[in-house]
Amino acid sequence: MPASPRASDLVEDRRRAALEVYEREPVPTWRRSGFWTTTLRGLDLDALEPKRYEPGLPELDLGDEEHAALIVQRGATVVHTHVADERITVMPLERAVEERPERVAAYFGRRLPYDDGKFAAGTAAFWTGGVFIDVPPNERIERPIQVVWLIDEPGTTQWAHTLAVVGEHAECRIREFFLAPDFDGQALHSGAFELYALPGAQVDLAHYQDWGRGEVHDLSTRRVEIRRDARVKWVPIHLGGRLTKQTLDIITAEQGSDMRHTGLYFTERDEHLDLFTTDKHEEGHTTGDTVWKGVLTGDSRASYEGLIHIVPRATETDTYLQTHQMLLSPKARGDAIPSLIVEVDNVKASHGGTVGELDQEQIFYMMTRGLSRAEAVRVLVEGYFEEVVQRLEDPGLERLVRRRIAEKLAGAEDQVREFIGERAA
Amino acid sequence: MTLEIQNLHVRTEEREILHGVDLTVKRGETHALMGPNGSGKSTLANTLMCNPSYEVTDGRIVLDGEDLTEAEPDERARAGLFMAFQYPATIPGVSVANFLRMAVNARREEAIKVKEFGGLLKENMELLRIDRDFTSRYLNEGFSGGEKKRAEILQLAMLQPDFAVLDETDSGLDIDALRIVSDGVNAMRGDERGFLIITHYTRILGYVRPDYVHIMIDGRIVREGGAELADELEDKGYEWVREEVAASAG
Fold this sequence. Notes:
heterodimer, A: 8 helices, 23% helix, B: globular
């Protein structure tokens, strides 16, 4: 099939326009009221470059589940694509521009403007490989569609773009993994993710980020659009990254659309996490439910700001947002800010946020039953996260998340003991 | 084989609450510690388990000859001490069954086999007439007062400690629940186990008949006797004790 000039032109025009923005814009610093600043001062951008690799499937731990499709991008190259379920299309986005031009032209970048800051522009200008997912209408895809973004050496930039379209009344599970082994040195993942859940679709979406102990910087925007009577359950999991600055938006765009947005993060050492999520209700009779929970150890910094935005015509919207943060170290700093823009009456919208520490009474109680202090802390933190982990509804991924959290807690045992001891005294 | 509380002085940040308490519970004995609100009963119970809100400034806690005064709560639990809390903490995200398994395993070298644990749990839930779905609920989350107390006694039954302190387990229970809890406690009484039942009221002592009764007022044990002392208290009230103490001091 000859390539449609329309899709490739669209992509190329966008690259050119985005490049101008990228070159014009300075490296940003993000500031908010209070103590919060996210700066890229520590990142030596000029020392990084896209790295290309030969095809081949790297060794990965994805919670050992069989997949409907697996696509792996290592550095700048898609090194592995395997589609087990013939009903779906999963391929590098570069190839989809050529082979699925109508679909790409219809959706590519629709909710992701290329001029939304330097790194959004950089991603739009420089992306390579990329991921395209297309689930046909009325199909139920049982096994997950797995996408892996792998950075396995320092000095790498990875400009990433995922475009997913889930057809009318289709059902599927999509998991994106962001993985790096522990390495010394810097890397950048600048990502764009867009998902369109067409009318009546049911999508179970998870993002699993574990960038390891290296200095991986992640600057990403992820946006999910939910059309009439469609439903998306989205569970982002953040388990590591030297600096993460992400915008995660979920949009109920038509009547009857429903979102469940449930995230967790665990920061340690000198990690810096800056998350801004928006639950945007663009039409009436939409529903939403957002819960984010975080734990901070070490010298880490974590800020979560969650906005509910209800536009004027979105009457009869029913939504709420809760955010909780737990400090396990005297040197960690964080905030959890729920906010609300409601431009219409006749909606139900509520929000709440807490920042707290482990409860002495709970620890004491558990210890009187024979659990050591470290076990009590582990059980409490696991229990605290349980609400989020259970929403994965994916035993393999749940195991992976629980195991990583347990490992991180074991690593933080001394400082947690010291912190709790200080509080008790 | 005994739990010995020797000349125990305990304070919070603000003030001293226990001013030298002596109390000895031997295995096979059931003691009742009674007193009005604010007399220091719960402070004693919590201090026995090393609640970080209380500081021991003098005296000792000795279990079977081993000094536990400085021991952490988990060491005391593994040494055989148990307290049923008056106000147990809520543990979100942790089911009753999971918590019980962890607690049982904390006292064992090898983890309990799934089948053995299941059998033990079933037996004890029948004893305490607890519904089966109870164990999949998160511990104490959304529990009524009575359910919390029953969950405490279920833990007691599962852990089979050498010495159990019941901190006002009877308060807030209706008659039926009180009877069930009392039956559970009675089923566990025996030569190998000692009980210290802390209560404001005498009614639980109608079901769980103590061998000894101690009355605490203002951080001191002021009267001691057998079960008949509880009956006398039932008739005459704490004011009577207070007056007697004042008279003998004066």
